[in-house]
UniProtKB/TrEMBL annotation:
Substrate binds at residues 56, 271, 328. Mg(2+) 1 binds at residues 49, 126. Gene3D superfamilies: PurM-like C-terminal domain, PurM-like, N-terminal domain. Transmembrane segments: none annotated. The gene is thiL. Residues 156-310 form the PurM-like C-terminal domain. This is Thiamine-monophosphate kinase. InterPro entries: PurM-like_C_dom, PurM-like_C_sf, PurM-like_N, PurM-like_N_sf, ThiL-like. One of its GO terms (molecular function) is thiamine-phosphate kinase activity. HAMAP family: TMP_kinase.
Amino acid sequence: MADTPLSESAAIAVIREMLSAPAPALEVGVGDDAAVFHFAGGSIILTVDSIYEGIHFTLDTCGLADIGWKAMAASVSDIAAMGGQPLCALMSVAFGAPPTEDEVRALLGGALEMSGSCNCSIIGGDICRSSSGLGVSVTVAGTPHAYGPVLRSGAREGDIIGVTGTLGDSAGGLYVLKSGHPDLRAKFPALVDAHLRPESRIPAGEILASCGASAMEDVSDGLAADLVHICQESDVGCEIYSEAIPLSGELRALANEARCDPLQWALAGGEDYELVFTAPEERFSKALSSLAEREAPATRIGVVAHASKGTRLIAPDGRAESLEGLGYDHFLK
């Protein structure tokens, strides 16, 4: 019965069947103590990310397929942020109670859907029981761009700061889901999708790497926090302009209805998984043109400054506000 709780061995059997499709470069898959994957020389980018019930999601707002998708997207996005291409992933799941076959298939199905969208094979992992709810951890291995990985530490004074897509949509979607109003969810479906099924910007990251981006990071903790990360690693400051930060029309409409500031969702909401990047003027213009050709819009939002200027948000009237302390922090929330 698909709705009957499974034993560990029965759950593994379902997972093994779902991961049975051939994967390029996979030599040993599920069934042994470890997977064997053939990497064709050179450097490998490695990353791991985890999401936990009650911290990153609740089961009353996220379905299991959405949780599988989000967990995979978070790690794949780290590869995108370095301009790389994801190759394979390991997924560890801890269930708060013995799962049913339907639950295993939903969770893994969402992860497979996301990984399949960027040609990243799930080649193994682990399953166990948790005393504190559902937890999912995903490790991804990928290859850097031919020009090398784009790091957080390469920004230089005078570089232009840009960001792909629009920001704050995920936070807006979370607001809609937490409201519990079906009519609100029906009115703002794109925001809900942005939160439940975020896209990782793999093609954009590769374009930015090929155009010579000097630094890059994915917007997972909010624009403010992630830009501060780049500045800290590069030993620089920055000035970004509030009126330049790209916000979607749907986010603006929700903010107007909810009487909220959409800029705060963009600065501190997180989980947009867009790419914030820096580049010298001439390379920045080339990057915008190349991204536009691939229908991946990006926006100029500011400039890298001397470290002594700090990290500042400039309002239309010229008032400056520090970006420090904005954004998500696991240990301060």
